Structure formats: C-alpha cells, structure tokens
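ok trying again, last paste got cut off:
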Amino acid sequence: MTMIRNRLLLLFLSFMVMEGKAQQIPDHEPMMNDVWEAFDELMYKVTTEPDGTTVYTPHFPKVLKDLEDTVVTLPGYMVPLELGRDHRMFMLSVLPLMQCMFCGQNGIPPLVQITMRKGKARFSNDPFKVRGRVHLNTNLEKGSEIQLLDAEVID
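nice, full thing came through this time. structure:
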C-alpha cells in the first residue's frame, strides 16, 4: 500500500475514534463511471530489494495511458488529507469518508488525488464533481498514482 493510502486509513480511524461511538454506515450515491472504471485498472509491479524490502511500482495499462493529459470530469466524495474545512489538495473517492473505503466485496476502490487550479474546495459529506487534467504519477514520494491537476469543482 502506498503512503497516501496509509495516511487515509489513519485519518479514517482517527475520525472513528473522535466520534466515540459506532456509526451506521451512510447510504451513498453510486459514483462509478467510465473514468473511475479506467482508474480502477491501476496495477502494481511487485519487486523485492536485496535487503528484503518489498517495492510496489505503479503499472498503468493502456486504458489508463490513453487518459494521460486528457481533461475528465469525475464525481465523488472528498477525502481530506489534512484537517480543515477548505482544501487545495485532497483525495476523491467513490465512497463517502464515513463509509470504510477499505471494506467491500471487490477490494479497495480507486482513489484520485485532486489538486485545485485556484482556490480551495470546501469539505462536504455530499458528492460533487471535479474536472481536471489526468496525470499518471510514478514517483510516489510526490503524491498518489493517479492525479487530477488544475482541477475545478463544477456544477
């Protein structure tokens, strides 16, 4: 798992502890579309370093490579990377924050890192749409594997 996903899990668990009680899983609107389906094709090449460290390197199949540098519109739910109300950079998920994104019948759903062109997006539990330019990132020290750059919230 990437460092971003580990941070998201920690953030999610922090919210659950702060609530102090178990909550009912919220209903959510289905967000999957052709773009999300393509993003879900992300794969990893797994290698082992001489010291025994396992390394996961993103592998982008053709369906993802075809989206590189294209502008797409993506519906989803905000997953903040930091505390606060307004965010310039955040993750977008097909599931709401309070619904465990690591639980499900088909594995971990796709997440996309969003970087706003200007201004910030306000956190909400409601779904919204963003439009941005797809960037496939191989340097995981510089963010998530799939990113939408120059993004803007749209109606």
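cool. Confidence is low (pLDDT under 50) at residues 16-25. The beta strands are 43-48, 54-59, 71-80, 86-87, 89-93, 111-116, 121-122, 128-136, 146-154.
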